[in-house]
Amino acid sequence: MIRFTLRRLLTAIPLAWAVVTVSFLLLEAAPGDVSGVLVPQGASPALREAILTKWQLEAPMVTRYLTALGNLCSGDLGLSVVRERPVLDLIREALPATLALTGCALAVMVLLGLGIGSLQALRRGSWLDRSATITSVVLHAVPSFWLAMVLVLCFALWFPVLPASQATDPMAAYLPAWRQGLDRLAHLLLPALALGAANAALIARHHRSALLEVMDQDFIRTARSLGLGPWRVLTRHALRAAVLPTVTLLGVALPFLFSGSVVVERVFAWPGMGTLIFEGIEHQDTPVVLGCFLVYGLLVVVGGLLADLAAAALDPRIRLD
Amino acid sequence: MASPPRLQRLTRQPMAAVGLGLVVALTLLAAVAPWIAPYDPLQVQLGPANSAPGLEFLLGTDAVGRDCLSRLLYGGRVSLPIGLLAVAVAVSLGTAMGAAAGFLGGWADTLIGWLTDLFLALPRLVLLLAVLAVASRVQHGRFLLVALVLGATGWMPVARIVRAQVMSTRGRPWVQAARGLGLPPSRILVRHVLPWALPPVMVHASLLVGTTILAEAALSFLGLGVPQPTPTWGNMIAEGMHRLDSWWLTVFPGLAITAAVAGFNLLGDGLRDALSREEETAA
Fold first, then answer.
1. pTM for the whole structure
2. pLDDT tens profile A44-81
3. pLDDT, tens digit, for every residue of A303-312?
4. What is the value of ipTM here, to two decimals?
5. Pick from A32, A145, A150: which is nearest to B251 by CB?
6. Domains detected in chain B
7. CATH number listed for the domain at residues A91-314
8. For chain A, which terminal residue's Cβ has fewer other Cβ atoms within 10 angstroms, N or C?
9. Does A205 have pLDDT greater than 80?
10. Backbone φ and ψ of A265, nearest 5°
């Protein structure tokens, strides 16, 4: 298992290199350049020269590419050209917000998806099953950013019970610790729901058919004939076998979740990676964009690895090599 | 074959029939938009700004007094064709990649497999964001550009499907017979191997239209798609973002997107069921 993990992480290296190279070339191809942002209007030629040298803006492309690569290898993501702060710090500030958001969305996905899917499979053919099927078709087709706005409309505007933007209340620092925690949770609820709902529908669908398939198998009949109650059969025997494809699906769904988080973060003014990379692209802040790209790529690789490890832990038949 | 024709088998499933209905209805509405739209979608100050849905303006007006219903109808003329065009690009590209990987094998397979993994490892939207932001100065032909970029970032699943199909077909007796007859490899590939990959690719293409319409909407929403004043469903939602009290600006375009995506998804699921049943009856 350790060898498997190491090998998977090794495959991330060429991937990271390709990601960096591709995004570097993309940003190079962009019209205009950051010097317009950096050099103040009416600056003397000497000042202009000094600024351009400081940021290596006049060095040939190959030099800048190699510098960027070298710095990345030593873990230095460089300085944000626009904010003049280390990119690593910016990412360190933004990453927890994004991880909290996607983590909660993942929880929404799994809980809602498994719960609804299980109910559907147990009550197959009932009105509950049918209405849940239709709901999941609709939810799966809803754009997450639109769902986000509709949620804000319902729960922040018409029935103002939840906050509609930012990750914390501006006055949160003056509150006692437990109220701060509550405040964070309240801010997380709507974005996580908006982000997780569409994928929850996907999971419910897969889980329903997986569970139905498992319920037909011999070992479930055996468990039933031993006199176990339906709840115990479900939780102890059926779920464990049926949950595997879902775990694999989670690994596949991760990039979609990160894609969705970029737009959802925009709706909620969420101070995460999506906002960071969006602003970086807007201002042609190359180091920030490169750093974000790299982190997104790593997140996906690590997420996929975790999903594989979890699948192996759940099913002893899966061998990791 | 004694089985009923395909379309009939498709419409016999209620969900697939609903999907087909949605797709046909929305396509028709977009196609005849110039004739049925009550007003010019670009005309400002048609009525009072931000007026709620009513008799005169069925879906209300936006902040500069344009008619939302007309904009919604015209929006379909951007969002739907971009989705279809992008999927055409994705399917062509994916088929070429998958066919090359599966048929040539060896280093071509390794290289294409690696490329596929690379594209899959990045969140698609982040990639789209970067490419379109780079091309932000391109205003002419933005429509084509968005479609191309969406296609170029959506080919990976198609490539995987085609590769798997080609690998499983290339050892079959009729392919060996064609080889034995001395047919050129390109002809074998096109005439005797690729047709077998068509059914799963069709299913996937239909599902892909749905995700592509969603991606286009997200891009429009972020201001990187087809720019204003041309209405697209995505940029109409974006306009509503800071005027949530005018809920009609947001709600209706979102419903249109949902209907379109659900339609294509249901159609894809129906196709898959119809095809798998066909396989069962054939076996």
1. 0.84
2. 777 777 777 766 666 677 877 887 777 777 777 777 77
3. 877 877 887 7
4. 0.84
5. A150
6. 15-30+81-282 (1.10.3720.10)
7. 1.10.3720.10
8. C
9. yes
10. -60, -35
